[in-house]
Amino acid sequence: MNIKILLVAILFSVSVIAQNFQGKATYKTHNNVDFKISTGDKAPNSDLQKQIQEKLKKMYQKTYTLNFTKSTSTYTQNKELEQTAQSGGVQVMMFGNGGGNDILYKNVAEKNYINKTEVFSKEFLVKDKLTNEEWEMSGETKKIGKYTCYKATKTKEEEQVSSIMTDGETEEKREMVTVNTVAWYTPEIPVSNGPDMFWGLPGLILEVHEGKRTIVCTEIVINPSEKLKIKEPKGGKKVTSEEYEKIVKNKVKEMNERFRSKRGKGQSINIQIGG
Questions:
Q1: pLDDT tens for each residue of 130-161
Q2: Helix, strand or coil for residue 93?
Q3: Helix or strand or coil: residue 51?
Q4: Which DSSP string corresponds to 27-83?
Q5: Residue 189: how many CB atoms within 10 A of its CB?
Q6: What pLDDT, on the 0 to 100 scale, is given for residue 211?
Q7: Counting C-beta atoms within 10 Å of the first and last residue's C-beta, which end of the chain has fewer, N or C?
């Protein structure tokens, strides 16, 4: 009888610990951007290209915080000043990244997510199901900080979009490409979660290499002294991920039309992000 009581007490204690388990992880990201610019029949302007490419690189170096429990999380970008890359009369602005106001909420137990984001001063609440991740597990390991991490990979086909603007006219080039993803996760933090939309491994994902994008965890705090508040974001127009993608595409098209008259003749710009 006493053994049964002791077993119940142990199970209750484990349950309470699981319910109260929380963590906070900091991630740094960067994304390589292919950027080509030429004027008329001239060869690409290598100096201008290098200047803008370097500024774009810095624009994509961002810091995020993942607050997580066993089943839920919020992923937010740390507050930063709005960034613009401008050189030689060519200006590139970041649209749809939301800055420090975006909130990505994931519930890995229920396999859904809510992304509160802002595009052109309008708030959206993107609600949809998490995509089932088909990871290929590996026995390969490495240390990230004090944690032993295991390698997992996956491959997917996705559409890559390149925008070419000549004399104010924008042409989109679309092609299917193979994107390889490598993730490093640690079972020492037993949550099936990770940065951005990554999840589905038996441990917290600390590092991701996907195409030209890299995400690396730089700090982890387990059960911080100040309790974290992880709640579903509210407000904004409710849309699905497919509806949101169409809205963004139309907005970008409107912006291209608006800037058409400001472009000089014979100038050609080719921008490719991701992939």
A1: 998 899 999 999 999 999 999 999 998 887 76
A2: strand
A3: helix
A4: EEEEE-EEEEEEETTSPP-HHHHHHHHHHHHHHT-EEEEEEE-SSEEEEEEPP----
A5: 18
A6: 87
A7: N
